[in-house]
C-alpha cells in the first residue's frame, strides 16, 4: 500500500470525524446560537430555522457522521491498509452512497451551498486516496492479499 495515500485517507477520515463531532456538540453550547443561525442561512440560503429543530437535526447528523467516520477508519486502518479488496469496496461504496444521497437531499431542499461543499469534500479529501488505493492501481489493493469481493 502506498503510505502517502493511506495517510491522506486517514487524515480525511479524521476531518470527517471532527466535523461530525462539531455538528453533534456545538448546538449544545448556547454561545453558538448566533453563529449557527448564520450557518443555517449560509447553507440553506434562507433565514435560520427553528433552533430546537436545528439542534436536533445537527445533533443527529453529527452523531451519524462521527459514527460513520469511526467505522470507515477501522475498516481502512485494519483491512484496507492491509490490502484486503473487500475493504476498498466497503469504503468506496459507503462514500459514494453518502455523496449521492446527501447531494440529492441538498438539491431537493435548495441547499446548493451544502451540495457544493459535499462535492469539494469528495473531490479533495475522499476521491484521491480512493482512486489511488483502488484494486489494481500501483500501490493499491493487491489481489494476492484479498478475498473475493
Largest sheet: none
How many helices does DSSP assign?
5
- Computed over alpha carbons, the radius of gyration is 17 Å
- How many β-strand stretches? 0
Uncertain residue ranges: 144-149
What is the CA-CA span between the terminal residues? Answer: 18 Å
Count of domain modules: 1
Strand content: under 5%
Look at the helices and sheets and give the structural class.
mainly alpha
How much is the average pLDDT?
86
Shape: elongated
Question: What order do the helices and strands follow?
Answer: HHHHH
Residue share in helices?
over 70%
Notes on the protein architecture:
There is one protein chain. With 149 residues, the chain is an all-alpha fold. It has one domain (3-136). Helices cover 72% and strands 0% of the residues. It contains 5 helices and no strands. α1 packs antiparallel against α3 (51-78) and α4 (85-108) packs antiparallel against α5. The longest helix is centred in the middle third of the chain and has 28 residues, at 51-78. The protein is elongated and about 50 Å long. The two termini are 18 Å apart. The model is unreliable at 144-149 (pLDDT under 50).
Amino acid at each position: 500500500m502506498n503510505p502517502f495515500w493511506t495517510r491522506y485517507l486517514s487524515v480525511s477520515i479524521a476531518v470527517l470525524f471532527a466535523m461530525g463531532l462539531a455538528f453533534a456538540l456545538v448546538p449544545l453550547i448556547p454561545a453558538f446560537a448566533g453563529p449557527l443561525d448564520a450557518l443555517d442561512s449560509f447553507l440553506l440560503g434562507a433565514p435560520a430555522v427553528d433552533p430546537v429543530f436545528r439542534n436536533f437535526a445537527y445533533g443527529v447528523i453529527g452523531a451519524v457522521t462521527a459514527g460513520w467516520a469511526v467505522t470507515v477508519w477501522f475498516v481502512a486502518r485494519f483491512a484496507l491498509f492491509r490490502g484486503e479488496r473487500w475493504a476498498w469496496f466497503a469504503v468506496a461504496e459507503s462514500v459514494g452512497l453518502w455523496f449521492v444521497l446527501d447531494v440529492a437531499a441538498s438539491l431537493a431542499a435548495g441547499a446548493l451551498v451544502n451540495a457544493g461543499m459535499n462535492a469539494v469534500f469528495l473531490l479533495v479529501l475522499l476521491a484521491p486516496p480512493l482512486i489511488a488505493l483502488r484494486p489494481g492501481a500501483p500501490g493499491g489493493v493487491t489481489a494476492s492479499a484479498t478475498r473475493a469481493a
